Amino acid sequence: MKYRHLYHAGNFADVHKHIAVIAVHAAMAAKPAAIQCIDTHAGAGRYRLERSDNSAEAASGIWRLLTAIDEVAPPPEIANYVALLRRDDPGAGNLLQYAGSPRFLAMVARAQDRVIAIEREPEVAQELQAALADWPRTRILCADGPGQLRALLPAKSARSLLLIDPAYEDTASELPALQAALDDVRKRCETAVCLWWYPLSRERRVSAAVARACAAFGRPWLQAELSLLAEDAPGLTGSGFAVINPPFAFARGLQGWQDYLGGCLARTGRANARILHHETATKRTRPDHH
After folding, report:
1. Do residues 109 and 20 make contact, with C-beta atoms less than 8 angstroms apart?
2. Cross-strand pairs, 163
3. CA distance to 123, 134, 278, per residue, from 130 (Å)
4. 3-state class of 250 per DSSP?
């Protein structure tokens, strides 16, 4: 399954993922200690929402959410996300552009925090440089993201927030490389908070690989999945992410905002939102189904 940021900006998976990224950072920022945020697959950092190309995806994602929140007040995690979007929008509320993960991280970074955004493709890395030019606490690397983690961890006198969001264009090579990189993270910084996004499809091959890698980390972790189509439907049926070492405040609020988001974005009937809490590889998994 191919998933390129450019063609899916503002779709339901982007919305799901970015609310989670912002909420994880907010939970970590409740403590004053610095946070080093590393985005391993940063992309261009900012995308123009055209009325062609990705308009249908944005219409069923961010634009649908913005319509819904005018009717029912959202949970604070979603309200924070929407406030950042609107503050960053040059279109006076028309949402002419959509921020990528590294730009969201730059917006929420405190004076003591740092953001390291890594993008492999040189042309895209140049766009990323422009997207983050006004944010002094950011560093852009044109390199292979997972391959840089060994040099970047552990962070000196800072906690680490790691975002893994690959394109899934060549899963046969991507997934083993990511699992090896996560094993390096475990050896160097086992307390890092790692958020790994994955697409949902009827094959469940990618989500199963992510789950195996996270279970091997040996720390508490959770999975959150939001399905908007039937599990046997073709293509992208939903959005999921795993969080290793999830902050307590994030985990406590997750069910509420994910249920709300599913209600806003459901295409037919009711969305299926579920959360699985994994304490360690040797303890029982606690499922929450809604």
Report:
1. no
2. 39, 195
3. 11, 8, 39
4. helix
Q: Which residues, other chains included, contact 204 with Cβ-Cβ below 8 Å and sequence gap of 6+?
A: none
CA angle at 164 for the pair 160 and 169, rounded to the nearest 5° = 165
43, two tokens: 């992309």
User: What residues pair up with 274 in beta bridges, in sequence order?
Assistant: 225, 289
Q: Which residue has the tokens 């475990």?
A: 186
- 108-129: burial string, b at 16+ Cβ within 10 Å, e else: bbeeebbbbbbbbeeebbebbb
Strands (E), the chain: 35-39, 46-48, 97-99, 114-119, 138-142, 159-164, 193-200, 221-227, 238-244, 272-278, 285-289
HSE at residue 171, side-chain half, CA atoms within 13 A, is 14
Q: Stretch 124-137: mean pLDDT, rounded?
A: 94
Asked whether the beta carbons of 238 and 227 are under 8 A apart, the reply is yes
Report d(CA 216, CA 196) in Å as an integer. Answer: 14
> From CA 36, how far away is CA 10, in angstroms rounded?
25
Closest CA to 62 of 108, 104, 125: 104
How big is the CA angle at 272 (ends 19 and 84), to the nearest 5 degrees? 15
- The pLDDT of residue 50 is 67
Q: With helix as H, strand as E and coil as C, how does 117-185 read?
A: EEECCHHHHHHHHHHCCCCCCEEEEECCHHHHHHHHCCCCCCEEEEEECCCCCCHHHHHHHHHHHHHHH
CB atoms inside a 10 Å sphere around CB 55: 13
Full-model pTM:
0.92
| Predicted pLDDT at 161 | 98
Give the number of other CB atoms < 10 A from CB of residue 95.
18
